[in-house]
Write the structure tokens for this entry.
Amino acid sequence: MKAAAVIEQYKNGRRDFRGESLRGGNFRSADLAGADFSGCDIRGANFSRANLTGVKFAGAKAGLPKRWLVILLGLALVLMMFSSYFSAIKGYLVSLIFSMPRITLTDTGERQFDGWFIQVAGWFITESQVAAWSILIFLICFCAVTWRKNILAVAGAGALAVAVAGAVVGAVVGAVAVAVAGAVAVAGAGAEFLPGAVPRAIDLDVPRAIDVSLAVTRAVPVALTLFFCWLGWLTLKQEHRDPWLRKIVIAFAAIGGTSFFQANLTATDFTGATLKSTNFNQAILNKTIFKQAIKLELARPGNTLLANPRFREFLIDSRTGSGKDFAQADLRGAYLEGANLQAANLRLADISEASLQYANLAGANLTEVNAVNTDLRHATLTGACVENWNIDATTQLDEVDCQYIYLLNGQKERRPSSGEFQPGEFTKLFAEMFDTVDLIFRNGVDWKAFIAALKEVQVQNENTPLQVQSIANKGDGVIVVKVHVPPDTDKEKIHQEFNQNYQLQLAAIEAQYKAQLTAKETEIAIYRQQSVDMMEITKTLANRPIHVEAKAMSNSNDSSPNITIRDINNSAVNFGEIIGDVTNTINQIAADASPENAQLKALLQELTQAIEIDSHLDEEEKAEAANQVKKIAQASQNPDDAGLQKKAQRAVNFLETIAKALEPASKLAQACQKALPIILKTLGF
């Protein structure tokens, strides 16, 4: 079926192309998302840069068409002949071992030898034989190292082999020379180093030497050709040998084969497909299915996750991962549904965007694993360690099967501490993490600064309700406060704004403390200078509030500062006024209008009384809390005023924050726990 016809029918709504022959079709940059090409012959088809999202190629046959197979075999034959030519040259050079010296007759009838040689008991070693022996030793070393290790090892051993060859030959020649010299000195006969003429008595068997030389010349090229053919087969069979050579061979074999270069293969199904000589270079393999794929190891993987043999085999058969080490593995976007990863080590692994539905991760080490946007629905996580794992709101944890987990390595910090998770509890535990901002305090918390900073952040983010979810003491002065925020909130912005406001509030409080300390030191100096008795000191302390008010009116002659006491006195006066104002506002609620109004009025009165008598709050905090009660009372009288309703909702959030920061036994905390849920329901928040 022609590619143009397929594309046209796809545009007309056809999606089922099962069993069609698409051999050699050009689908470059085509949009074929959702099509079904199961069982199709796609050999030689070009799907480069095509959108193949969700396409099914189950049982399809990819690879080289016959014409390209013939072309590549022809090229391979040419390369083999080219290699055989050089092998023949090597064979000829090695055959020089059996060569004889060149002999010419002098005018006197004596035989003259060209070049230098050594004659030992009828044996001749010529300069060409020395070179031939060197080449033979080098070839032996080359083949031995290549067979035992790989070709790259030969590169390192090449110089050594040449040196060994030279040394061996030199040693042989040297030994012969020494033997010759010794024989001449001791016996006076039997050996002689001759640069030119030799005695006539030596009989050279030239025809036999020529026959042996020809045999070696033919045998060496054949042996080398067979050896390198075997080496090529071994390289394809064993992936750890010469991976660089393997890449070249596979890339060469993929020329003209099925191409998915830069194609979008998201959720594409290659179950049971034959994929040799297929190009996946730079393809998008996100949740791509390779279950039971055939000859995937002979495909060109590029830089995709198929490049790692261990991961590729796991994608083909995901039942084999139990107890395996996948530490720091790049499994981003891998399709591992139903995978057996029981007790596997996935420390620091990247499984983001991967599909692990129904996977068995019981007892697995998920320490610092990147699981952002990972699908873990229905997965088994019982006994897994999730220390510092990276998840967010995109991580799918619905219906996870988990009885317990460990938050630290070494089976420490079990959750739950005893018993087992009830259905849905595991998902709820981690879902709460997605909608919180963690505020970490390493040297304790100044709660006055905390409340002021949180209030300021609420003002800066008017449409973002903030609620303290939990306060945890981690020891060594480390306090973690979790603040609940809506799902679509910019958590980073909230966190930064709170930290900035908290530091500003701390600085202001520190300035107040310093001013107070300075005031105390100044007063002590004055008391010492006056040398008054205890009665004088008592009188001075008793007159301090009047002194502050007078100072505020600029009628005091005493220039000593008294910031803290002045603030408290002003707060005390303001608090009395505020309580009266709040009480009047609450009394204006028409209790007889409805039972809800009567209940709301009673609850607000209880909150006001709790604020007045709570000893855990200072005057300023009481005044602020009372103001929040007033906002709620005003909103109850004007249910149609959207502005007052927003203020009331923020007021409830503020009271909840104060209550959670207080001791559970405090009056206000108890009153808030009782009243606020009913108030929220009554006002319809």
Observations:
- Residues 491-530 form the longest helix (40 residues).
